[in-house]
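User: These chains co-purify. Model them together.
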Amino acid sequence: MTREELLQLLAAWVGDITDAAPPPITPETDLVRDLGLDSLALAELAAKARMRFKVRIRPGELAADLRAGAVADLLLSRL
Amino acid sequence: MRILGLDLAFMILFWILVGPPLAAVGWLAGRLPVPTWAHLGLAPLYALLFVVLLLAMAGIVRTALPALKPGSYPFPGHRQSGAWLAHFALMRVMSFPLWSRLVFAFSSLRWLWFRSLGARAAFDMRTAVDITVTDPSLVEVGQGSMLSAGTFLAGHFIENDHLLLAPVRVGKGAQLHGQVTLAPGAEVGEDAVVGPGTTLLPSASIGCDAHVGLGCLLHNGARVGDNAVVGHQAVLEADVVVGAGAVVQAGARVPRGTVIPDGGRFPPRE
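Assistant: Joint model of the two components:
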């Protein structure tokens, strides 16, 4: 899976979590500041990633850098 | 009279535990060829030596007590109830603030505290100094876990003249934020996060990598699956099952016995 595909997947997940259309996402999009996700939504996002890719993401790991590109890179590093 | 008898028994236990370490430290201090004023400078070392000896005494006394077995017993009157009282008294002596605050300030001493009282505790767990563990011998705390300020782990429950004893488990890497309460039989899975003020009643459980928000209440036997997310101040009534990866909305009250399927939501979306 490429970084671009992961960004699209992130957008789809954010749409599902917020019960809205997938938002436009660039690598610099901040999941909290720009998309309004809260801590529980981030936990849900991490859960989706863990279940989809069977990867290990420790609590709070996503919060280290909340830009979509950084999250995609984190996932890519675990695949 | 019964209360006075219990107090007398507690006093004897207190003396057995605290007397020998104090005497040993006093004996050592008296033998040291240093001027009187130098003993003040050595006082912190005396305190640490006292605490180590106290922990050793606790370990010896605890191994002499009958082991606690999970189950429900008439209280008082059953042999397990008596054994529990003895373990509880031991915990009370060891939790006396004068030394327990010192013990919990050091990772190694804290680990010794847990081990001497029979807990299966990993060396590298992290805890605040003011956690309460009422029944250490029924407690298991995994590697890398975190027990924040005010965490309360109880392996017993007394209700209607019956004593319930059940293990309490905190998995590897789990994070219990401030004021979390775990009742007997409660279990938190590996890498799960439990928000501040959340309470797990008897036999409630949270799966691995699950995230439970702040101020939630999980009634008896409620189960949160792996990777599930429970929003702030949600209430899961008795025997609710939240499937793996399922989501419970903040503030929701999930009725007794509800089963939310894997990946499902509560309340469901229209």
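The mean pLDDT of chain B is 95.
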